[in-house]
Specification:
This protein is an all-alpha fold. It has helices spanning 18-38, 41-48, 53-56, 58-80, 83-99, 101-107, 111-137, 144-152, 155-170, 179-183, 187-221, 229-232, 240-248, 251-272, 274-284, 289-317, 323-343, 347-360, 363-372, 379-388, 392-404, 414-417, 420-435; strands at residues 11-12, 15-16, 408-409, 412-413.
Length: 439
């Protein structure tokens, strides 16, 4: 007797979601590119505008603040229209934000760049609020977390490209003048150097804006299941109050939002300030500042390669391991490595910081999947809450930057001690994993 064929993880009710899955998954790479071309810009803007690390970290405030502000409106928009409409509007805002880098450069001021980042990430908020639950819906609930991890595996591919572009087409082409030399320049010389550097910085953003327009046209022309919330709910009106109350009173979801907040904060801190950590280490060995920054960015890229490889490995491991248990194990390992970053003031501390990425690879989609499991119609607004938790990437990095600006604390390097913050974040994730290990 023949064994029944198991349905694909991309099949539901006889519908094959392969083409929508491929198109939507490409959006994961696009926002990965935006995320990781931006992290090195904290250091770049600090140099270009002669600012402190704390002022440079406002890039992350604007970037991840857009996620927070637009997540809930995005969920309502998707509810009213469709996932496809949400993806298209997200891509449109992404492109507008990228193109706004040109007028920002013309002003020669820092704050128009923050506005451009904010609008760009309003688009990313629409994309993530649309794409993550859409991927979850493209098959059975039993395979939802595996499916989302598979889609998220393509996010670090875009991230790697973003890091490479930041290193080769921005950092390598900025003026050779060090931070100290810029501080000593007269106004005329400084303005000339600044305009040259800003012209270098905006070019990749203009190119990605053009690519986004092509992607927008492609998705607009291809027939995709609409997947609107309204149609899935049988045409029922959305009742915000009762939905929000149900979500808030569900511990697995409520605590998932908290865990996601601290995870994103840990991720952005580890990836943003690896350059500061490495630059200090290599300059102490006699290396010039720009060379030290470039070498540190190579370690940042190595961290993303490890993150990408680990994501595929962990996605496979989820076939055999409980997601919450694996989450707990990786969070414990991430905490231990972070302690190594704090305590080892040498190359091994940098190795630990690179190794943290292997532990983080699974966390975002797994927390997302655990928190939304079994929510049914409420998952649409629940997804918005989890995207709003990306605010952790806006609030926590400036705190770490403020610590780094202290230079030394009790005779110990402040940049090392600042990684106590990511350690605390991993402790929260361990708590969430333990709480849900039997789910």
């Amino acid at each position: 007797m023949k064994q029944p064929i198991k349905p694909s993880i991309l099949t539901k009710d006889g519908i094959n979601y392969l083409v929508p899955f491929v198109l939507v998954t490409s959006c994961f790479a696009l926002w990965g590119f935006a995320n990781d071309i931006t992290n090195p810009m904290v250091k770049a803007f600090s140099k270009i505008f002669r600012m402190s690390a704390t002022d440079g970290a406002l890039v992350q405030v604007a970037f991840y603040g857009g996620y927070f502000v637009m997540a809930f409106p995005a969920a309502l928009f998707i509810r009213r229209y469709s996932y496809k409409a949400g993806v298209m509007l997200g891509l449109a805002l992404y492109a507008i934000g990228a193109f706004l880098f040109f007028p920002a450069k013309m002003t020669g001021d820092y704050y128009p760049f923050l506005l451009a980042y904010f609008i760009l990430t309003c688009g990313l908020s629409f994309l993530e609020t649309s794409c993550n639950p859409y991927i979850l819906s493209m098959g059975t609930e039993e395979t939802a977390t595996r499916r989302l991890n598979l889609a998220q595996s393509f996010n670090p591919i875009g991230s790697l490209l973003g890091m490479y572009v930041a290193m080769r087409f921005i950092q390598a082409r900025l003026s050779e003048a060090s931070t100290t030399e810029r501080a000593m320049m007269d106004t005329h010389t400084f303005e000339a150097v600044k305009q040259s550097d800003l012209a270098t910085l905006i070019t990749p953003y203009l190119f990605i804006g053009l690519l986004i327009l092509v992607m927008l046209a492609l998705i607009g022309c291809v027939s995709m299941p609409q997947g609107s919330d309204r149609s899935e709910c049988g045409g029922r009106d959305l009742r915000l109050g009762p939905t929000i109350r149900r979500l808030v009173h569900l511990p697995r979801y409520r605590e998932g939002v908290v865990a996601q907040f601290f995870y994103v904060g840990a991720q952005i801190m580890c990836w943003t300030f690896i350059i500061q950590y490495g630059t200090r280490l290599f300059m102490r060995q006699g290396m010039e500042e720009k060379a030290a920054e470039m070498l540190s960015q190579q370690y940042n890229i190595a961290a993303m390669v490890i993150f990408c490889a680990s994501r595929f490995v962990c996605t496979f491991a989820l076939r055999y391991l409980n997601a919450a248990r694996l989450l707990t194990i990786l969070a414990i390992a991430g905490g231990v490595l972070t302690l190594g970053v704090v305590g080892l003031d040498n190359i091994y501390g940098l190795y630990c910081l690179v190794g943290v990425s292997a532990c983080m690879s699974l966390m975002f989609p797994t927390i997302y999947g655990i928190a939304l499991r079994g929510l049914g119609d409420d998952a649409k607004l629940g997804a918005a809450g989890l995207i709003m938790a990306i605010l952790g990437g806006s609030l926590l990095p400036p705190l770490q930057a403020a610590i780094i600006d202290l230079k030394e604390i009790g005779g110990f390097p402040a940049v090392n001690l600042s990684f106590v913050l990511p350690f605390a974040c991993f402790a929260v994730i361990v708590w969430y994993g333990v709480r849900n290990r039997k789910a």
